[in-house]
Recover the amino acids of this structure.
């Protein structure tokens, strides 16, 4: 029985095909018509209650099945009308009598209006919307894929969530592509209904006059009732399916069900209701207008609009009262900090500050400096406060885990707190007590990153994306899907905040690796390689030297996850040169060479790495300009030559604008560290690599070169 049910749809389709061949008795035709109407009504209701078109992803296939079912019924009813003197069941006769009302001409006109309304308005409109949605959905796929990859790389999502989002994008593309073709079926069904109507009326009338011998008036009356009735029982389900098609393809720009969206968006516009009420009231001055009805509608609109306006005005006050009394986060004064590293809440302070700070030991608590802090304006507290659904802490945990897996460094505790010194929509990020970044977020909007050539411009508040400096717009939630169709990359406010935080942490990670953290990392390696650690520390490698090495690697974006290789390489180099270590730069260059597979992976795509190179004459001249100081060698260039190099580099870096790879400059190992320090103050995110740091199986592609334009004196 269970196996038979699994093939029920197959049996249903086969039955439909038999309707095209086998004549059905009138009672069975009535049952088929009732089933058809019920199924069409159910489909329409489903399309109006779903929140996402993919919740009803079988709709394109279902559209084909229902159309085939309707055509099968149409063939059966036409056969009965032509062979049974216009009789094809009680439902068809009832519909025909109800519409005609004894007047054939009026009844036929009403029927034609219904048919043409469906064909020219609903079906044609749904077809056009499906076509546009399919094209824009496919065009927006690359941008959506890039957004997913960016979220995955920054640790905002894990691999499983990224896979689910990619699958959803692919399903959306397949769905709207199928809908584009399925709407052609609806259009063809409407055309076919007109053809069968003509066949029933003309063919039936000819057959009736020739075979029955009845008068022309009686024949026309009989077949007119049958034609209109048959047309209606086919057109009503077809109309429902056409409306359902239009409903489901327009769900792309909706957030909830149709009922939720209409209620939410209409209730958000009380001013429009009140203005409409005034305009309706003005119409009463026109002579002959129904004054009572106009005044009733006008008063209703004014009353509803005024009520909604008052409610909208009171919502911020209620939210403020709720936030102040919830006990989750105090908005001003002493606020309970949300510490990512704390396992237990802090002990409550005495009521009086004076009493607390009478103890001199308590004053020392004011001297501590947090490694990372985030401060928020009042409006952003819901993003942080878990008691009201805030997810910022969860997202930071995901980022911390991802960064530890990628870079081998555990981000320290992040202190989250509200601040009265910021605007309500602002936030700031501090590293060791000093502000390093600030941004502003509109919590009820989405951020749309502008593409190079958008299909159309979306309405919104112009801004700059805080993490990467990309021109963007804050758009309303209801415009989100439309913006993606136009090619924008749309990001929710929480993701904007977490992305900015993650980029700031990555840029300043080298400042956060303390001596204590170095000891923790070394002790962690000791669990798997105790002999190596015992030999290296502290006889050959001090924790101070290890901190310098790891700081230098992190500053240039090199992962320190392979700490065992780093320690082994350092130990080998120090064993060869002896103590004390005088050339720390040379030691770090040896370690970078040992990590060349890791470094290559960061900047290599499909076995190829695009780089900017240094002209051989420029590099030889720069080697000659190396000067020795108290802290080792440094590159001494004259200001005009330095300006020339920076100007050239500015132009060359533009070539990486359309590439997904980070900018890379390739030099010799001797010049690498010196050239990096030279350009670091101008372009801190540009990576300088040496030939020794690139794996042998990688194809190097030079897309630009820096040359010695100034032939004058190089030295300062």
């Amino acid at each position: 029985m269970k196996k038979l049910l699994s093939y029920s749809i197959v049996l249903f389709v086969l039955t439909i095909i038999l309707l095209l061949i086998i004549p059905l008795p009138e009672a069975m035709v009535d049952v088929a018509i009732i089933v058809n109407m019920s199924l069409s009504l159910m489909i329409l209701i489903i399309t109006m209650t779903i929140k996402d078109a993919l919740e009803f992803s079988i709709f394109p296939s279902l559209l084909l099945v229902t159309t085939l079912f309707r055509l099968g019924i149409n063939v059966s009813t036409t056969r009965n009308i032509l062979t049974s003197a216009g009789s094809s069941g009680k439902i068809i006769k009832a519909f025909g009598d109800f519409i005609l009302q004894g007047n054939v001409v009026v009844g036929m006109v009403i029927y034609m209006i219904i048919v043409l309304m469906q064909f020219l308005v609903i079906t044609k409109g749904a077809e056009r919307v499906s076509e546009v949605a399919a094209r824009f959905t496919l065009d927006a796929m690359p941008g959506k894929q890039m957004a997913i990859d960016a979220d995955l790389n920054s640790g905002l999502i894990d691999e499983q969530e990224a896979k689910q989002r990619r699958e959803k994008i692919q399903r959306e593309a397949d769905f709207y592509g199928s809908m584009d073709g399925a709407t052609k079926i609806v259009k063809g069904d409407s055309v076919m209904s007109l053809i069968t109507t003509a066949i029933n009326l003309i063919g039936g009338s000819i057959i009736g006059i020739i075979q029955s011998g009845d008068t022309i008036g009686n024949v026309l009356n009989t077949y007119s009732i049958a034609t209109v009735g048959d047309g209606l029982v086919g057109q009503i389900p077809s109309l429902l399916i056409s409306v359902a098609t239009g409903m489901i393809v327009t769900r792309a720009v909706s957030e909830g069900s149709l009922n939720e969206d209409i209620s939410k968006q209409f209730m958000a516009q009380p001013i429009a209701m009140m203005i409409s009420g005034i305009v309706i009231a003005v119409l009463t001055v026109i002579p002959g207008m129904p004054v009572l009805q106009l005044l009733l509608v006008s008063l209703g609109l004014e009353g509803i609009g005024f009520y909604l306006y008052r409610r909208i005005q009171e919502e911020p006050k209620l939210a403020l009262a709720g936030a102040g009394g919830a006990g989750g986060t105090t908005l001003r004064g002493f606020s309970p900090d949300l510490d990512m590293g704390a396992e237990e809440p802090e002990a409550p302070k005495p009521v009086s500050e004076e009493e607390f700070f009478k103890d001199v030991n308590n004053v020392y608590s004011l001297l501590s400096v947090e490694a990372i802090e985030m401060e928020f304006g009042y409006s952003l507290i819901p993003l942080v406060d878990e008691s009201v659904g805030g997810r910022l802490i969860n997202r930071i945990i995901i980022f911390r885990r991802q960064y530890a897996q990628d870079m081998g460094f555990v981000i320290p505790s992040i202190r989250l707190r509200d601040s009265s010194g910021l605007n309500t929509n602002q936030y700031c990020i501090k590293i060791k007590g000093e502000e390093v970044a600030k941004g502003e977020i509109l919590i009820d909007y989405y951020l749309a990153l502008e593409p190079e050539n958008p299909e159309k411009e979306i309405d919104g508040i112009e801004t700059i994306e805080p993490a990467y400096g990309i021109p963007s717009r804050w758009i309303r939630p209801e415009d989100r899907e439309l913006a993606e169709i136009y090619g924008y990359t749309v990001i929710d406010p929480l993701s904007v905040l977490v992305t900015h935080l993650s980029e700031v942490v990555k840029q300043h990670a080298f400042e956060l690796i303390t001596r204590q953290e170095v000891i923790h990392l070394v002790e962690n390696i000791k669990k798997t390689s105790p002999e190596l650690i015992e030999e290296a520390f502290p006889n050959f490698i001090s924790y101070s030297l290890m901190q310098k090495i790891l700081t230098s690697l992190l500053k240039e974006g090199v992962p320190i996850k392979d700490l065992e290789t780093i320690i082994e390489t350092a130990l080998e180099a120090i064993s060869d040169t002896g103590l004390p270590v005088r050339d720390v730069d040379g030691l770090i260059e040896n370690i970078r060479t040992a990590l060349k597979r890791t470094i290559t992976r960061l900047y290599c795509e499909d076995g190829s790495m695009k780089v900017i190179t240094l002209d051989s004459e420029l590099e030889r001249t720069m080697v000659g300009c190396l000067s020795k100081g108290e802290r080792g060698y440094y590159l001494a260039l004259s200001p005009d030559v330095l300006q020339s190099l920076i100007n050239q580099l500015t132009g060359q870096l533009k070539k990486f604008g359309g590439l997904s790879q980070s900018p890379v400059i390739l030099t010799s190992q001797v010049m690498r560290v010196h050239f990096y320090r030279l350009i670091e103050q101008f372009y801190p995110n540009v990576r300088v690599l040496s030939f020794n740091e690139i794996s042998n199986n990688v194809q190097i592609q030079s897309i630009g070169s820096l040359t010695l334009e100034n032939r004058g004196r190089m030295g300062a």
Q: What stands out?
A: The CA atoms of residues 209 and 359 lie 114 Å apart. The chain has 27 helices and 15 strands. The longest strand covers residues 699-706.
